Amino acid sequence: MPTVDPMPEYLKEQDRSHECMKLISTLPTKPGWVVTALYNYQGFWHTARQLQGVISCQKHYKAHDTDILLVTTPKSGTTWLKAILFALVNRTRFPQHHDHHPLLSNNPHVLVPFLELKLYVDDENPDFSSFASPRLFSSHLPYNSLPKSIGDSQCKIVYLCRNPKDTFISLWAFTNKLRLQEMGINSLEETFDKFCEGVSLYGPFWEHVLGYWHESLKHPDKICFMTYEGMKEQPELHLRKLGDFLGCPFSIEEDKESVVEGILEICSFDNLSNLKVNKEGKLSSGEDNSTFFRKGEVGDWKNHLTTEMVERLEKICEEKLEGSGLKF
Ligand code: PAP
């Protein structure tokens, strides 16, 4: 039996362009969680292959005024928000009770693709002809690394992050699934140290969050700042807020038809994680769709982190977020 390689394409180190190789040779490097090395580009950590997508989309992506970009820190509920945004902006084309709703047969990552991890990884000029307007894209890029056309256009950004304790546990569990069998699983202690030092995919976590937090305060019409915990606690309120932010508020008629509730139901962890496509399907980049559905809860960190780890993370949070007005 051939061994199955669980590592997605964007984490693989081969097949980099000459331009990317040249850039990489100039960048600070540290050992990665799955791949051998992470590289620090514009203050944040990336894999070699992913960097190719980053520099390509920085150079070539031309945002339309109507584009909607979902930016998240990894493992903060990206898959969930992709589903929510897709269902929200396409609710006239695809009512939530539609038997053939695209979310029933496609993983949300297919419907809302990543710019730098998918569309621009292999192609400097991806084919956007099949994208309906508004085009929905996603990214994990920090604010300062976004393609310039995003700031120059009227396109909107929805930003999602999650408390760092659950983010870390979710990332640790996810990267363990991506490691080759012979590599074994990552030690919780070692990866925790790396996370605290900021050496994680698209880390440092705090700088990522603060970059968008400050911009969202300055430009609330451009960036809608959200948290996984907020979405879990008051999903209806936040879905309505998204509708208002994106210029597609729910109407009285829609309220009579319980459209908000319907969208939340189709996008719920129970519904999505039990669909055949998400139990058995795979992304073209190689990951099993099921790797994006683990527990979907707030507070799983309590089952993994020691008191010392919690204290350390809370202290970092206090120091980094001091004076920002942001709390987890
Ligand atoms: P990504 O950033 O790599 O795309 P992302 O979707 O953010 O991944 O991470 C998956 C997390 O969202 C998982 O959290 P956990 O490890 O703590 O369980 C996953 O379970 C959770 N998740 C996925 N879908 C949903 C959903 N519909 N509702 C709530 N949480 C979800």
Automatic annotation (TrEMBL):
Its EC number is 2.8.2.-. Transmembrane segments: none annotated. It is an enzyme of class 2 (transferase). This is Sulfotransferase. Belongs to the sulfotransferase 1 family. One of its GO terms (molecular function) is sulfotransferase activity. Residues 65-325 form the Sulfotransferase domain. It comes from Tagetes erecta (African marigold). Keywords: Transferase. It holds the Pfam family Sulfotransfer_1. InterPro entries: P-loop_NTPase, Sulfotransferase_dom.
